[in-house]
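Figure 2 data, in text form.
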Amino acid sequence: MEVQLSNRIIKRKQQLSIQIKQELSHIASACSHFWKQGDKIDSVLFINRKMIPKAKLIYAIRNDGTQISSNILQDGTIIRNTRGQNLLNRPYLSDKDPSQFSTLSPVYLSLSDRKPSITALHQVTDMSGEIVGYVAADFDIDDFRNSELEINETLPWRQIKGDPSIRKNLFQQKRTLSAMDEKLDQVNDIITHLVCKRGIFHTKLHYSSSRATLWPYERPYEYQLHVLDEIIDPDVCLAYQKHDYPRDAKVKSGKVRAVLERLKDLRNADETIYLRSGSLNVINATVGLTFSCDGSHYMSVDEFLTKSDSFWFGV
């Protein structure tokens, strides 16, 4: 999961870099002719600031982290008292890559407005090709044009540990039969129908508290909460519009019941280590599980259906 997230961030930064690299290179080249003349660098930055209209401000930095120009804001404001400040501990300098002419910093919270920001750096070189500093441009990340990233990743198994105090007392507790435990077959019948025929693409069953949360495909931002009496009443199906099984679902409809039955098995498999809640999302084919030890697991549907009891509880 960490690798997939990292890859998406890298792709997004590559997109952002494409939008500004050429313009920043031009400004860095113009500044190189006046590198030891702060006032002239200010003039170059002021004249060329419109080349990068999304930048909040642009400025120039020496190799040692000292800012040698003023801050030039997009509206033409010049803040001269920033000259001479040391920026070496800023994230965009501490993580720069000397082998790259143009780089983007990690996203950070701006000290001035606390907004997620990013800084683009472009090397400034002298006549011999030696790096003498950088031209920097600061951006609000929301000001960039947003290109879609296609995400077609299969979620690998991921385990997240929960509250240590719960794990510490794990063997002092025992599963209490809930109202939902006594009606699980009915619950699974209704949930299967809702997912396959009524447009529910994400469902989470809270076994210990006997409730269910449902996310309708047509209104994905409005999850619905049902207590047990509602979820085992077939009339609940009328509350949701008839809907063909989603074409973009990565889970075949025939596997929905199999997942719910396997969740039921894990709920009943052990009296000490038992399932407290389980979820299924048919769009991204993800199953989520939270056990009595407060540990959570996330994995693909196909991987989930292949795991035996020994995977969850040991031999």
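Caption note: The CA atoms of residues 32 and 128 lie 12 Å apart.
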